[in-house]
């Protein structure tokens, strides 16, 4: 099938609906959450039951950080084990969700702020599959990933997200996957089951207040929020997926938090639902 035929077939299959698909940001944490039944993975499974079954999922993962913007466009994305030092059981996991080349083409067409590349090499990294295998264990929902351009700032990604809004009317779940507070160098493994440093709890409370009150400007300018923010976000890749989630919110939608817990001292699992 030609690219144009794939695009036309996709748009015919997904008529515009008045119902907007919710938008999610998932604090994905350790790759082990992908194979463990714990409080975080249980909530991911529950969330999938609380929202409509999506026509497809587009994941913006902290673990696909690129120059420029790219979207996976293959029929069957591979499962990427982009980590080390974990049990063999984690490396044995395959998440065989199909791709959706037609959706990749439509997404490319919707985004005007970047020349989006159609990628046939990446796949689904652990920011995507560790969460989705709990949400959709049968791997029957098509999944794509949209990369994060590391040359751009938070505001750029927030604004780019707005160009994806129409996909929500077509039942596409747009899911940011990272961690709002994420400083692995300061992790305390004695606190891995729960607990945060004072600075981590302080900035987490600040971030949550801004999110719940729709004050997105300071979140885009997080570098101005003080030393705690810089400790929470020493590098931006785990934070920027949140910008996509917030950028897709309209003025009438409600925001709620879940999995709102600090672990390891310097990491929060706090997750966000819009709509």
TrEMBL record:
GO MF entry, a single one: zinc ion binding
Annotated Extradiol ring-cleavage dioxygenase class III enzyme subunit B domain residues: 37-251
Pfam family, one: LigB
Source species: Pedobacter steynii
PANTHER family cross-referenced by the UniProt entry: 4,5-DOPA DIOXYGENASE EXTRADIOL-LIKE PROTEIN
Required cofactor(s): Zn(2+)
Highest taxon of source: Bacteria
Family statement: Belongs to the DODA-type extradiol aromatic ring-opening dioxygenase family.
Entry annotated with the keyword Transcription regulation: no
Keywords: Dioxygenase, Metal-binding, Oxidoreductase, Zinc
Protein name: 4,5-DOPA dioxygenase extradiol
InterPro entries recorded: Extradiol_dOase_DODA, Xdiol_dOase_suB
